[in-house]
Model the fold of this input.
Amino acid sequence: ETGVTQTPRHLVMGMTNKKSLKCEQHLGHNAMYWYKQSAKKPLELMFVYSLEERVENNSVPSRFSPECPNSSHLFLHLHTLQPEDSALYLCASSQDPRTGELFFGEGSRLTVL
Amino acid sequence: DQQVKQNSPSLSVQEGRISILNCDYTNSMFDYFLWYKKYPAEGPTFLISISSIKDKNEDGRFTVFLNKSAKHLSLHIVPSQPGDSAVYFCAASFNDYKLSFGAGTTVTVRA
Done:
């Protein structure tokens, strides 16, 4: 098993759809993250969970809803998205949030029509 | 407000030569700096880091230099290899999990 696994790798959805992105880490880490990467822009931190508690919501619109049922799994629930939400969504985990050494998944490429 | 900037979106270098990637930051409170490497269709992978108490950290072909007074970070790759062709992200943090990333520099190593 690879360290951080994301599914699906590609997702196309309409603006009225509801879908979810899934992330699973097999590294025994305590913290998990969602990042958004838009073309030619820096990675943007969306959410951070540490020991299954959300510790950061970086001013993300409510149409993005995270869920962390346990330390190994992280979801990003999507509903009524906008075309500008089309991006690569990256999940990451870390053992020690303070060192910033994140282990990323391969990302889920989202296209909103 | 972008606190970490990579002003060169791309860099082309001949195989065997040195690649120098630059990064500037604005927040003087940053105390930990990292470089990540990303291949197409893959997530970023951690490459090398440096704490603000150091000015140099070396790992094989990769060396990171930190100039705190200039708020400048650089990554040297010597010698450059075709497998080094990727996007490189600079990142910085201050005592917490909030990494601030640069927009990335695409490195192309020519044979």
User: Anything to note?
Assistant: Residues 51 and 108 of chain A are 23 Å apart (CA to CA). The interface with chain B takes residues 4, 6, 31, 33, 40-43, 45, 48, 50, 55-56, 90, 92, 94, 97-107 of chain A (CB under 8 Å).
